[in-house]
Design brief:
The chain is an alpha+beta fold and 1067 residues long. The protein is built from 18 helices and 51 strands. Helix content is 17%, strand content 27%.
Amino acid sequence: MAGINDPLTFVKAETYFERAAGWGGPTKLVSINDKPPSTAPEPTFWHGVNLKFDDGTFAVVQFIRPTLFRVRYDPTVKDQEEYDDASSHIIIGEYTSVLVKDLDEHRGLVWGTTLARSSSGKHWVFESKVTDVKKKGGSHYKKHDGMKIHIYENPFRIQAVRETLPHPDLYEIPDVPPHTERKAKKVVWQTSPKTFRYSLDAVLKPIKNVVLDIIKAGQGEFIGFGEQGGMSFMKKPLFMNYFNFDNMQYQQVYNKGPLDAREPLYHSDPFWLDVNSNPEHKNVTANFLDNYSQIAIDFGMTNSGYIKVGTRFGQMDMYIISADTVPEIVRLYTGIVGRPKLKPRFILGNHQACYGYEKEEDLSAVVSQYRDSKFPIDGLHIDVDFQDGFRTFTTNPRTFPNAQRLLHEFKDNGIKCSTNITPVISINDRPERPDGYSTLREGLEKGYFILDTRYKDGTSGRAEDVRYACYGGGNLYEVDPNDKSQRPDFIDNYDFPANFDSGYPYHGAVSYGYGNGTAGYYPDLNRAEVREWWGKQYQHLYDTGLEFVWQDMTTPAIHTSYGDMKALPNRLIVNADPVSGKRELKKQLAIEQWALYSYNLHKATARGLDNLPGREGKRNFILGRGSFAGAYRYAGLWTGDNASTWDFWKITISQVLSVGLNGVTIAGSDTGGFEPSKDSNNQEERYCSPELLIRWYSGSFLLPWLRNHYVKKTRKWFQEPYAYPKHLESHPELEPLAWLYHAVERVSKYYVELRYSLIQVLYDAMFANQIHGLPIARSMLLTDVADSSFFNETQHFLDDQYMAGNDILVAPIIHPKSENPSESRQVYLPLTNFWYNSNLRPWDDQGTPLLPRVEGGRIINFTAKITNNYDDFPYVVPVYVREGSIIPQLRVTQYVGDVSEGPNRVKYNVYPGKDHSYTTYLDDGVSRSSAPTDSIRYKLVTKKKKGVKAKKDKKGEALNEEIKVDEEAKGEFREVLLAQTTVNGVRTLTITKKHDNYNPVRELGTYYTVIFWYDVDTTVENYQVEVSGGAEVKYDVYKRNDLRTVTLDIHETVGTTDALVVKVTPA
């Protein structure tokens, strides 16, 4: 049994659940106890119950926080002790009980659990309750908060109930208590009477099919699900497949393209939120499934009343979180999965990548043309052409003979470079060099590569019978690894039968297309010593001048003739990274830990860079193509190999917003599309449509990640914005469209310049992510939680509108002019606020007065025509600003952090309207020492460094090895709170220093500007200005009736005065 008939092969979700209809499972709870496992180092902080069922299987229900609990079920477990206290690789810390204790101490929270039989005697009540909060502001929980989990005996099911508040009344209701006194107990999560179903395989023991049936509330609305799910932010009934797959153009399994939510993609984030099951009350419930093999979801497809969640290998390990709002869910979730380290500020700049920059002259040409056109850019990404014969960690001495000089020249010019790093080590040595291909030689000598040992149960065991299975073009097909003609076009004549199950290194290969690629070995990254070795391999590249890493082909992506589903063979036996507390390596099948390899790849690179000689004190960044939940602790995410089609542009916003709910800070698609689109004759286009590229740049100008990336080779001619006008020189037939080709460069440049002027907005959101876990680009559900219209008539606006931080709304144009001749769209402005059409412009001399404010709750028809007229550029994409907002802007520079013309004075745009506040974080943008020191992970490490005895497990081994933080963090930043209040027309801006361990005078200079904007029909010439709080702070005042502004230049570095008060009083 092999290939497409092998039961271990990937199974589509719809097929999986069709089979599951006949499975059975436990029906009756026969015993329950709250005894902690013997492996728990902190048993008093293990808040769980063990369940035994009538079929002899066991489950565990465990509180991690007062409203966050975990459900574990493995039908092969026959003793409750088998559910030990070890955390998974994804959850921070090594033991759950230790994590709970540390979180409690960090938050100043005291809580506990009780287990009692219900008064009816038919079920058990497992209850959590907060008894004290010792730190003011340390926790969002209040005294008496908690949850009741009702565990029913026969039939067995679970029901979670929480006391919730109703939404605030729009107007006070006579003779009715205020909403804060009208709490009600509501079901926030529950399972069906068939909670668990499973199917084991008598021959193939790794197969452990388990289905968890969750009741889907009829009025519930669901968001999240990671990068999967097509264009809709709120998901409709669908099947979903979580299985990391090198899915070029999102069409390999179903052949429907990027709008098909079923396609398994590069990255797996099985995390989703129910945001409306209790419409009149404040509650959001999230689910996270911690299983990195294959996950299938039936989201109301076979039964509209259920969400069926299936796993094929490993354990059903579900985390359920309940909170009042989506932001609170994100905070709780990232509290246990972790938050990323602070990234270098330049990551937020503009980036350019191309598979086809093949020599030094290509790179120099790109850099010079960006700089000559005054088009800001910070990052240049060099693909595998940089390598010597596709040997990872090398540089090509023939095409890049002066790589070190070149990269340092680029760096001097503000251009930071990354290169493509694939987790394959070529089998081709470099005999012409004294040390050869050192990574290959050392890996072989030390036994650091995955070995070829196979799981042969259920097969003939003969290499000649092996077949690999894969999907392509919607079809499942087989490949014979013995057939050399099936191998890539770079030729690899190795003897498969001789290597099969030999115990020698597994022989795979990566194909980059166009005759490029290599056969190679794969580092055994599920071993800690190999991860450490892998991290050290970057030394040569960083000595050459690299500044960050582009981690590609992360599955790992392998040619179809070497493994299943373009990856490792399902039956390859690999080392299983030891779970916390278990120090011995286990052996598992590659299919059982499918996404763990890429997770450990990102971890190995991140830790390696942090410890690399020459990187002391510097922040690092990795851009990864895909992994599993929690990998954002180590890397940003780009959404894989898309194409230059409107469908890919349409899903970009939903993808970025959805992964943002998981706490992912840096995420985005390849701007303009990587692969070519096809014309009406099915011929590949030679470049991205000018209209599409303009819409992509303008619509994503405030998304976290902005990188133009395309394949050149024999496919595309160009995609850099400056190349479009140049193309006209050799194509006179395009003269009627010359205006459009020129507009590509000019409009794209305008929005990149606007991004650079607003870079502080993006940076403040990125910095704050370490504190509360919220992303940079946010769904309106995160920023406008009181707007219940999102659950009905305005729901579709969630698909293609986003917020940058809390206050700037962007509504991209996602349809071509051929479908939308008026080039307009409807824009929804959330309730409870007024909004202003943005008057933010890239340059100081482009100030424009505010247009009349628009009431929230309205739908605006906005015309956003593309022209080559500069005055029209601000209206190519609808952008709105929330009333009362405080928005920082900087001078546009050609790269982030450029002070060649002196410090970059910051100006704060202060808008009229409701009272509002804004927090800004000021540092040097590059040093690790800027990172805050009040995170739980930092405190655990520093506690050990200061001599506090580290916790030990029962074997006497140190705990919390997984909790790695930047030990160079020193809190070297300045935090400033700007808060505006308005009383009887008097506007007061209070500028308060909240944290002061850095002086940003080098970056920002010795003065800053505050601009108070005023509504139409306002005359400001007689307005009075007072500044107080500082010791004779000097300032200049400028009033302009044409702009309706009162402007102050305050002669000190932002935050120098502890509390500065600026008051503007009407005449």
